[in-house]
């Protein structure tokens, strides 16, 4: 179930179709090293990023598609510190309970290729990306990754971020242009409220610290009505699309599911709670797929 808060769709209905037309010249931008999968979670690709660092991601195609098959690819940005510690088979050794990680088979079932992004080599550990999520070099890094995925798939490339990963997604969507820019953005359990007196200053960061007005691609915002995470209050979701200039926007509050809401606090900001759509992965992935393909959630 879900409650629809907002849907905005301008008269120019050709916007989405245009976004699916990918420039053939993007193929020249692929500069990653790829390790073949060995019955794991996907191909492990490594690209060069800021300041001599590298960033790894696990790339997987939906079953039955060719190397250039499929029309849509999702670049997945997990929450927390973003450090998945991908193994050589593309499987995360950390943050396994993240909602986007658990949703991988549902995205593949919907026909989407996926790129599950690890933190860059200079941001390991639990804090991982920390305050780097709002930095311009981070947006540039994601632009390189988007271009790499677009070149290997010849597909439209969307960013999908969850929890703290939404800060990264907004950073990239607001700042990138040209062949490095995403064709759309999906934000789930968005970080909209920060802790300004925290010991770590970056804990105060939210998507509202970024130039939302610069986003012109389609934007889907999804939250859970029972989310008690103090960082992602669902009643603020409409403030995001009110500031963007997205070609299409929709705000959705998911309801139901077995996740315990509990009292408001940090403990509620985890994957096995309503914040992470526990046991509702298939429902949420299906809604995301409908929106990406030009419909409503």
Question: What does this protein structure show overall?
Answer:
The protein is an alpha/beta fold. Mean pLDDT is 87; it is low at 10-32 and 34-38. Helix content is 21%, strand content 20%. It starts with a strand and ends in a 5-residue tail after the last helix. The protein contains 7 helices and 10 strands. The protein has helices spanning 15-19, 99-102, 104-109, 136-153, 165-175, 237-243, 281-292, and strands at 2-8, 33-35, 43-48, 54-60, 72-77, 113-117, 156-162, 184-188, 219-224, 249-254. It has a 10-stranded mixed beta sheet, with helices on both faces. The longest helix has 18 residues, at 136-153.
What brief labels describe this structure?
single chain; 297 residues; alpha/beta; 10 strands
Secondary structure topology:
Layout (H helix, E strand, L loop, with lengths): L1 E7 L6 H5 L13 E3 L7 E6 L5 E7 L11 E6 L21 H4 L1 H6 L3 E5 L18 H18 L2 E7 L2 H11 L8 E5 L30 E6 L12 H7 L5 E6 L26 H12 L5
Parallel strand pairs: 5-6, 5-7, 7-8, 8-9, 9-10
Antiparallel strand pairs: 1-10, 2-3, 3-4, 4-6
Helix pairs in contact: 4-5
């Amino acid at each position: 179930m879900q409650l629809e808060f907002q849907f905005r769709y301008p008269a120019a209905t050709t916007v989405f179709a245009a976004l699916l037309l990918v420039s053939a010249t993007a193929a020249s931008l692929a500069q990653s090293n790829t390790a073949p999968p060995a019955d794991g979670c996907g191909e492990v690709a490594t690209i060069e990023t800021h300041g001599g660092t590298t960033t790894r991601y696990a790339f997987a195609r939906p079953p039955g598609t060719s190397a250039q098959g499929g029309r849509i690819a999702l670049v997945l940005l997990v929450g927390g510190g973003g450090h998945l510690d991908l193994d050589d088979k593309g499987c995360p050794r950390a943050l396994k309970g993240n909602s986007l990680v658990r949703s991988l088979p549902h995205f593949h079932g919907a026909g989407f290729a996926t790129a599950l992004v690890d933190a860059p080599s200079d941001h390991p550990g639990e804090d991982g990306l920390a305050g780097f999520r709002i930095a311009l070099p981070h947006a540039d890094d994601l632009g390189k990754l988007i271009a790499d995925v677009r070149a290997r798939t010849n597909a439209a490339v969307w960013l999908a971020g969850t929890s703290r990963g939404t800060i990264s997604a907004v950073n990239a969507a607001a700042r990138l242009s040209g062949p490095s820019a995403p064709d759309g953005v999906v934000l789930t359990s968005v970080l909209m409220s920060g802790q300004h007196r925290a010991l770590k200053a970056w804990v105060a960061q939210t998507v509202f610290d970024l130039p939302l007005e610069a986003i012109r691609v389609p934007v889907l915002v999804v939250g859970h009505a029972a989310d008690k995470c103090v960082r992602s209050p669902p009643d603020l979701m409409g403030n995001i699309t009110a500031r963007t200039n997205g070609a299409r926007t929709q705000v959705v509050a998911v309801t139901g599911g077995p996740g315990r809401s509990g009292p408001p606090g940090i403990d509620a900001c985890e994957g096995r709670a309503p914040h992470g759509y526990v046991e509702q992965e298939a429902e949420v992935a299906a809604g995301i797929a409908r929106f990406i393909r030009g419909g409503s959630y």
